[in-house]
Every structure is written in structure tokens, then in C-alpha cells.
Design goal:
Helix content is about 40%, strand content about 5%. Strands 1-2-3-4 form a 4-stranded parallel beta sheet, with helices on one face. Helix 2 packs across helix 3. The longest helix is centred in the middle third of the chain and has 17 residues. The N and C termini lie far apart (about 45 Å).
């Protein structure tokens, strides 16, 4: 690493991992309180450490959404049954192959409305679903669950699926 040119001792003013406002969030916040912004021209900037690549996940159940997702890093499904999620996974696999892209490393996340047992989740995993989104209390108390019922539902889900094992 080269000495920092703007201090006498060559050390950077900010230490690694100093927290900074996210520039995109900051610009949005500024836009809420002003009617005019002017984007200042800077010379080439460098960020260190280099941030990791951010994956692009596409959501949706239509053929167009699946095609778009297949060209990127992953797919996020909607509230669907395991059978429908497995069908979408198979279609994504076909589309990735058609585009000459590997299925390995491609993320498939979806809520499964009917998966409540270990066997249900094993079936989804075997079909290529890499992660699930769930609200466990829905299986036990429904959509109008109180906070206490939600906490209880998460505990029951953890126990029922032996997630501590």
C-alpha cells in the first residue's frame, strides 16, 4: 500500500472498516430535502478493501421473470407450493443451460406454502432449491399471529424441524 499523500505521516485519516453512509441511500435522503442536486465530478476513485460483487436476484413467477433471473445470479420466488417451486427450478435449470451458464452457484430462494416437515424441505433441496424464506408462525397461528404467537411459532418450527440437531 502506498503512503497516503494528504497527511504528513502518510497514514490514512480513516482506519479500515470505518463506517460511512451508503452513497445511494445518502443521495435518496438528500433528494427528499432539496429540489436541486448538482452530481460533483471527481477524478477516478478507489475503494479499499474492494467490496465483494453484489449478486443480482430477480423475483417473479412469469416466464419473463424466470428468463431474466436465469441471466443473473439467482431467483426469488413468491408464496408458492413446493411443486410449483420445483417446476420453476427445473425451468431455471433449462434456461441457464440454454444460455450456456452453470446452475452451480445459482441461488434459488422461495417461500414454500406447503413445506412443514423435514422431508418437505429435503425434497425441495433435492430439486435444487438452495434456500427458503419462511414465516414459521403461519403454519401454527396464521397471518394474524400476535408477537407472542410469532415467537412461539418460530420456537415450534425450530423444534419440529430439529434445527438444533
Amino acid at each position: 500500500m502506498h503512503p497516503y499523500p494528504y497527511t504528513k505521516d502518510g497514514r490514512r485519516r480513516c482506519q479500515p472498516f470505518t463506517e460511512w453512509p451508503d452513497p445511494w441511500v445518502l443521495v435518496g435522503a438528500l433528494a427528499q430535502v432539496t429540489t436541486r442536486l448538482r452530481f460533483y465530478q471527481t477524478p477516478g476513485l478507489e475503494m479499499q478493501p474492494t467490496p465483494p460483487r453484489i449478486p443480482v436476484y430477480i423475483g417473479g413467477l412469469s416466464e419473463t421473470a424466470l428468463r431474466r433471473a436465469a441471466r443473473h445470479d439467482g431467483w426469488i420466488g413468491d408464496l408458492i407450493t413446493t411443486d410449483r417451486a420445483i417446476a420453476a427450478t427445473a425451468r431455471l435449470r433449462e434456461l441457464r443451460t440454454e444460455n450456456g451458464l452453470p446452475i452451480d452457484g445459482f441461488t434459488i430462494l422461495t417461500p414454500l406454502t406447503d413445506a412443514i416437515t423435514i422431508a418437505d424441505y429435503q425434497r425441495a433441496e433435492a430439486a435444487g432449491i438452495t434456500g427458503i424464506l419462511t414465516m414459521p408462525w403461519m403454519f401454527y397461528a396464521g397471518p394474524n399471529a400476535t408477537l407472542a404467537e410469532k415467537v412461539d411459532g418460530m420456537k415450534r418450527f425450530r423444534k419440529d424441524l430439529a434445527l438444533d440437531a
